[in-house]
Each structure stands twice: as C-alpha cells, then as structure tokens.
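$ ./design --mode recover --in tokens.txt
reading tokens...
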C-alpha cells in the first residue's frame, strides 16, 4: 500500500484525469512522460519513451501498481511489450490497461484495413502482451472518448464538403467517467478482462457532425462515403459498439455544450 503508482501517459487525455483521482485517494503517483516535468502536487515525473524502450525500468522500479494510459495511432503493441517486460522484472503487483471496444472484433488483415483501422490491431496486440506478461493484470475496453470525437468533428468541419463514412456509428464516453473506473480497478484486485464501458447513446457520425456544426452556428454539406475493407464492414455492423454496456452518463450533447461554453468563457 505504500508503494507508488506509475501512470504512463499521465499528461495525456485520459492520464490527466487519472492522476489527480489517484492523489485524491491518497496514493503516491509518478508519471512516465516523454518530456521532462517538474514535480507538482505530490506527483513525480520520470522521463522515458515506451516505444524506444528508454527510461522504463527506472519508472517502474518501486511501483507496485502500473496504470497504462499511454497510447497513440500506432505502436501500442510494442510499447506494451516493453512496459510489461520491465514491470515483470520490477515485481509489479498489478498492471491496469485501457483498451478499446472492438479490439477483438475488428479484423485488420489488409493494407486498407491497416491504413484506416490499424489502431484496433495495435490495441489488441497490447492486450495480448499484458495478458501474457506474467504480471497480474486488468484490462478495460472503453468506447471513443468525447474528446476524440470533438477533435475529429472539428477537423472535418473545416472542409467545405464533408465526406462522412457511411454507416459508421459511435458510442462516445466521458473521459472523466472512464478515469473513475480505471482508478477503481487500479485500487482493487487484478480482474483480467472486465466488462466494456460505453457511453449512454449511440450516434451516427453524420449526427455527431451536425450537432457540432449547429452548436457553432455553421453548416456544411455532407457526402456519404462507403469505406472499403473488412474492418470498415465490421464497423458498419457495430463491432466498435457495446449497447449492452451503456454505463456512461454524460451524453455527447451535454459534453459539447459544456466544452464550448468553457472555451467561450476562456476566450
């Protein structure tokens, strides 16, 4: 109980919610980051790179619990392999990993699949590395965060005509709610693969875009585009959704209203 908790990606979208929650629970926290940071609010930062396998052993030594939040568009499988190797050497008691709904159901077999949906394959590889590590583990698969959907809709809204993947649906979930669940899991016993965590509603991509444009007082014509490949077909069939696990509470509409109001007040 006195050992530190290491959070990888502790300055990222999810990690910056997880770290203060662990501190509120009275735990000593260290953060693995690619960039150096000064210690603040009882949090110590360790510089390292998971994919390059730099600084990882120093980060995990003495950390009984590791919450692995770091991730990117590619390389998550290699990053996880490097992390679990160091964690096993350090004698970590619990490794908690955040993955994505559909990692095991979206086939990424062709070049087209990898170009558009390789993220799911990298996450599945990371899941396998964690499960095979020999370190007691817990993995939570969550839907896409509201923050990610907002970033995507903002980028797409810059186009004069928006190509919208036909049939694509999402079940966005609040980052803070996922952080709450991760902290609960981290402070509990290793549980293996736990039930998925999705947001309260399922939306078509076109509807997410329309609500964003409406909130900004803008309009753009949209053109449906049918994406090729097995992975895209699986997404159209709902492989990235978990309607039976709609356990999140904050809707996309409420998130969007709150976020844009905060941005206007800051600006």
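writing sequence...
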């Amino acid at each position: 109980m006195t050992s530190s908790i290491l959070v990888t990606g502790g300055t990222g979208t999810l990690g910056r919610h997880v770290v203060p929650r662990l501190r509120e629970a009275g735990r000593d926290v260290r953060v693995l980051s690619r960039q150096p940071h000064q210690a603040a609010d009882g949090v110590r930062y360790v510089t390292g790179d998971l994919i390059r396998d730099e600084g990882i052993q120093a980060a995990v030594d003495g950390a009984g619990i590791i919450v692995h939040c770091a991730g990117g568009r590619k390389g998550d499988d290699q990053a996880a392999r490097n992390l679990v190797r160091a964690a096993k050497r350090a004698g970590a008691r619990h490794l908690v990993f955040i993955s994505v709904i559909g990692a095991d159901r979206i086939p990424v077999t062709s070049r087209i699949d990898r170009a558009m949906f390789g993220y799911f394959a990298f996450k599945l590889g990371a899941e396998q590395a964690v499960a095979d590590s020999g370190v007691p583990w817990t993995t939570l698969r969550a839907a896409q965060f509201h923050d990610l959907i907002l970033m995507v809709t903002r980028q797409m809204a810059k186009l004069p005509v928006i190509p919208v993947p036909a049939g694509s649906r999402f079940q966005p979930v609040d980052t803070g709610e996922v952080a709450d669940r991760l902290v609960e899991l981290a402070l509990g016993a290793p549980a293996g693969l736990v039930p998925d965590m999705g947001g309260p509603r399922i939306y078509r991509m076109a509807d997410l875009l329309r609500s964003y444009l409406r909130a900004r007082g803008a309009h753009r014509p949209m053109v449906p585009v049918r994406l090729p490949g097995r992975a895209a077909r699986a997404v159209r069939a709902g492989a990235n959704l978990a309607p039976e696990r709609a356990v999140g509470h904050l809707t996309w509409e409420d998130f969007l209203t709150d976020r844009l109001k905060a941005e206007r007040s800051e600006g």
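exit 0
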